[in-house]
Amino acid sequence: MAAPKPIGMKQLFSEAGQSQQIHQLKVQIEELETELTQLRSGMLNVEEKAALEEQIKGLTDQLAYSGGVHEIEIQRIKPDPEQPRQTFPLYQLQERAESLRRHGQKTPIVLIPQPQSEYILFDGELRWRAAQLIGWNTLKAVLLPKQQILAAEQVFLGQLVTSIHSQKLHDLDLATALVKLIVYKYPDLKQFQADIPKTLNTAITQLRREQKHLELNQIRLASEQEQQEWLETAGLRKIEELEVITVLLGLQLNPISINNNIFPLMSLASDLKQVIRTEGLESSKARELNKLSAEQLNVDEVKALAIRESITQKVIQSKLSLGDVKRLVNDTLAQYCPKKATQASKIIKLSKTIQDFKVQTADREGLMSLQQILTDKLAEIQQALKQ
């Protein structure tokens, strides 16, 4: 199967010249590597990747030749508070810092010049943060020429696309960034942005009724015109549903994956969100730990927070697997609320049964029946999760 055509950064940076081309090629190289939470699939072969890397080097050299590579004082560089990526776990910073210490800075960061010789980061915040850990005073940088400075929406969109394809974003960052981008694109949704995840879920439910949901994985790779034509016949009745789906498809993301795996993270407890930011806690583990709520534990909010923080620290310090986290959460629920723990145990057992089921050994009629049952049950689960 041919690799899907990547999003053209030219669509995003109509006036960005050389810098736009560099980002376009970065996306092409990184786009089909291991997909963020399996939202997408595919792989560039070695020859294609090497060829694109060579083109990037040539374009970077051109940009450096025309504008120069500058040694910029770190204290003059500020992170972009509006950029999509907000999660920088300490272990990642330490790894990058050690790489910089041993091998030096291989590629320049990209900066947007500001008044009074200040700069805003466009790309390279991890290197900027890591350099400070090892006491560096300057970093090599290339500058986006003033005539190529983009509007805030274009900058944000460029950062988001690049981050998605290079796996720089934690799922929580992606969820927050997607909501922000949707509002950028459709300002009429600003006052309803807290309801955007619910709007997406409603849209997915409608697409299931219309038997159109199975087409999403393919249509996300289609051209913008083909996507619009598909949406016109998809059966979505509300304009806000069309707007949300349009943005996700425009990023070549599967709305079902976003609905199931990404947007639910926005409802995590605030303490878990903070642990994600500082420790890089995986989203799947965070969702399990989020079950340790006051309601589920049958305790007050203060007690629930103390329990959750204690269990979370154990998960991080012991580097527990997802399976271990599920068992630990279930045991904790059993300690405080036995009835709910019993139900959770049933879910774990059912999940394992489904995972262990050998599809190859079943007949076609049985598989079709099972598919319908699972489809109906999945719709019920999605509805329950949104309540």
TrEMBL record:
One Gene Ontology term, aspect cellular component: chromosome
Alphabetized SUPFAM superfamilies for the sequence: ParB/Sulfiredoxin
Domain ParB-like N-terminal: 70-164
A Gene Ontology biological process term: chromosome segregation
SMART domains with a match to the protein in the record: ParB
Coiled-coil positions: 15-49
Pfam family, one: ParB_N
Superkingdom in the source lineage: Bacteria
Keywords: Coiled coil
An example Gene Ontology molecular-function term: DNA binding
Entry's family note: Belongs to the ParB family.
Name by which UniProt lists this protein: ParB/RepB/Spo0J family partition protein
The species this protein was found in: Pelatocladus maniniholoensis HA4357-MV3
